[in-house]
Amino acid sequence: MASLFEKIWTSHVVVPETAETPAVLYVDLHLLHEVTTPQAFDLLRAQGLPVRRTDKCLATLDHSTPTVPVTTLRDLEVVSEPAAAKQVRQMEKNCKDFGIELHGFASRDRGIVHVMGPELGATQPGATIVCGDSHTSTHGAFGALAFGIGTTEVGHVLATQCLLQRKPKTLAINTVGTLPSEVTAKDLILKIIGTIGVGGGTGHVIEYRGSAVSALSMEQRMTVCNMSIEAGARAGMVAPDDTTYQYMAGRPLAPKGAAWDAALAGWRQLPSDAGAKFDKEVTIDVAGLRPMVTFGTNPGMVIPIDGAVPVDNDPAFRKALAYMQVEPGKPLLGVPVDVVFIGSCTNGRLSDIREAARILRGRRVAEHVRLLVVPGSADVKRQAEAEGLDEVVRAAGGEWREPGCSMCIGMNGDTVPSGKLSVSTSNRNFEGRQGSGARTVLASPLTAAAAAVRGHITDPRELVS
Amino acid sequence: MEPIKQIRSKTVVLANDDIDTDQIIPARFLTTTTKEGLGKNLFAEWRYDKDGRERPEFALNRPENRGAAVLVGGRNFGCGSSREHAPWALLDFGIRAVVSTTIADIFRSNSLKNGLVPVIVDAASHRWLLEHPGTEVLIDLPSSTIEIDGKRVGFPIDSFARYCLMNGVDQLGFLLEQEAAIGSYELAHT
Question: Does pTM surpass 0.95?
């Protein structure tokens, strides 16, 4: 009676752990981007080591890239900050020197690494997936064991295709009930983080289970798994099922023909056995769930859209409220908004942009609000444009940008000015995350679009028909 | 990496819970392609005002805390992003150990790879440390203890990571020695 996590862990142990040494764990897919890899490639150069399996690497540019059009490195020099441009050039060089295919500016596939992997079919059930990026947990939506690593470990995987790991504990999040309409996967994961806390998953791998999770689409499951790290869990996963297989079938890197049938037979064995034991279990009833918004400076400081900011005399809590310029005991509804960001590896997929468009269509963004919509990948952008969603955004007065991490991390041009309030579909409302002094309210694409239109924090259910 | 056996230092205290890696080193400083020089931007948002001047009230800026190599943080220290730039920045600044009741997984793993010692203590010891900033502590790796107010308190640390810290051993060397097993695994799984 093994859990999904235990099955994947066991099948990837190259050398078992002992009291003295951690397990050597094999990595099936290594995602690489420009910010957390340069020092790892330097390590290989210093030791004269090659990349062991270039065929298991998927590399792109996403974090420090501008979201205005860039098709060549020369364009980049014009629009980028010098340090960011240098980092991108270094990634081009590193991939070239070590024989790794880079999905760079000229690629049809370029995008946020956690949007691209699933889109290309590189993300597969039962796989171990790592990246120098904490939101690697996203890929767990496919029933993969996917987690973020540091740059030293990026070097380890490049050199050996393996990691040294102690086996983590498991945490089952059991959902019961059905999500009400207009309440989204983002609201669900914010509720979960609010319930277990930002450290609630530390040392654990989460498996999201139950009726509300099974009913989610793949893109919604990715939103949930993406934010596992915001509860402290390196990995979050959902058992693969027909929703998973339908999403994957025909993707460029998914197995084909007889190989597909064989893979599918294996994937069907992955879900946790009935009676599988977890180190910890938490039940979340989603029936009465409302759209959720954060009020503080971490994702666990979250309330329903029509709730009031809690009252707490803890100095750190009061400091967070002072930073956010919100008052205890008061609602967030009606608080004026300066910037709305729709995008990121959390909510930058086609269904997210469709959701936002439901509210933006035929409406105008409030005069004092800047709306930035950034597709998660070139593919998301093409599909959205084929549906005319770019026109919906532009007609509403919003900016339609090139794919990238953009205002989620504010590393290359897209930032929220100091003191301004942003309603953002991204994953972190830490102090200064979206720009020095920026104030961030995390929300779903529906809630973000509603805030853009009204110019203040709004219950999106008032605007969807 | 230099071998580490003991760290004796006064402490500097940042009592907030959930100090995230975006605070330790903000993303705008991550465009670097090296590990060096990050210390000057450690806790940049808290350490400097808008004009880049040090805020005198911030703990790391106070004269009595200069030279402290042990940082006592609130609960859940190092949460958020996987950026290894966080331990690089702390080390570059001169911090050699971080003490809390809980330390986030990826930050802890990154710290151990770089010679920054993560020390997890019980709530009572933690409270005492928060209430006595500047106290001298002795972290002893061979016994996995930290001496606080004359009392030795054990802390958990993975035996392999401790061996690597104490001997200045790079973990990659151990992984490279597993070549035969890795090769066999690959043969059996293709």
Answer: yes
